[in-house]
Amino acid sequence: MNADKSIFFMILDILLVSFLLYKVYVLLSRTRAIQLLFAILLILIFDVISKQLHLETISWIIRNLSAYLVFGIIVLLQPELRRLIGEIGNMPIFNWINPKKIQFLDKIIEAVIELAENKIGSIICIIQDIKPEYILEKSVKLDALISKELLLSIFYKDNPLHDGAVIIENNRIIAAACFLPVSNSPLLKTTHGARHRAAMGMAEETDAIVIVTSEETGKISIMHNGQMFSPVHGEELKEKILRLMNKKKIVEYDK
Q1: At 252, is the pLDDT very low, low, confident or very high (cuts 50, 70, 90)?
Q2: In the structure, what pLDDT confidence band is assigned to residue 253 with cuts at 50, 70 and 90?
């Protein structure tokens, strides 16, 4: 009986570690951090080879650098680690315990559809578990209840706040004129301008759902988790956002 339990926990241990390693790989494969991962693997390979060939100098260098390598990884991979923790927190089991609340989603969708119809460029970021403090520090703080009219007025061409993104948390617009990191994702075509590249950068570094309307075509795109969905038609916009926000138990209410 004890042997059976040991085997069970051994298999469980292997499955959990495999799952975590897979999630880390999938997360890093969509970002520039994958290059860092390959560099670390290369260092480990050099370490093994140097020990086998008794290359003392190389072994000494690697041994002394390894103490700082862990801290370097943590610093360089902060966005990816935040996203990984956010993705684990978004697993269905946790949403069953504490379902998400999506407020004022209809007002956001109404504004996005009207912006697209009038070919007004916009970026709307609905943040989830990862709050991009480094972006918010350089933005214009609003802390206002969401309304269709407010979103439309922000992105109106002559508004001083129109050049940048809006960040939404729960039922409030917390910031406008936010300048986002620019992505070099291969998913983006040469026809995609700075607005789409900034939206993808936000989707790569955080777990936000980023909605973009094109000034040139009027098309609606959604960026999330390093992926792009385009074009998204108005009638499917709400369903798409709800599915990305967590597929399972979501409570939606308005005030």
Answers
A1: very low
A2: very low
Instruction: Report how far residue 12's alpha carbon sits from residue 6's, in angstroms, rounded to the nearest whole number.
Output: 10
Question: CA–CA separation, 172 vs 104, rounded Å?
Answer: 9
* Statement: the pTM of the whole predicted model exceeds 0.85: no
Query: Residue 92: which pLDDT band, with cuts at 50, 70 and 90?
Result: low
Q: Does domain 102-253 have CATH number 3.40.50.2000?
A: no
Q: Tell me: cis bond preceding 99? Omega within 30 of 0 counts.
A: no
Residue 81 has pLDDT above 80, yes or no: no
What six digits make up the tokens of 174?
């917390």
Round the CA-based radius of gyration of the chain to a whole number and report it.
22
- pLDDT score recorded for residue 255: 37
Domain boundaries, the chain: 2-94, 102-253
**Cβ-based neighbours of 255, under 8 Å, separated by 6 or more:** 103, 171
Report yes or no: 170 and 133 within 8 Å, Cβ to Cβ: no
Per-residue model confidence (pLDDT) at position 76: 64
Give the span between the Cα atoms of 24 and 20, in whole angstroms.
6
128 and 86 Cβ atoms separated by less than 8 Å:
yes
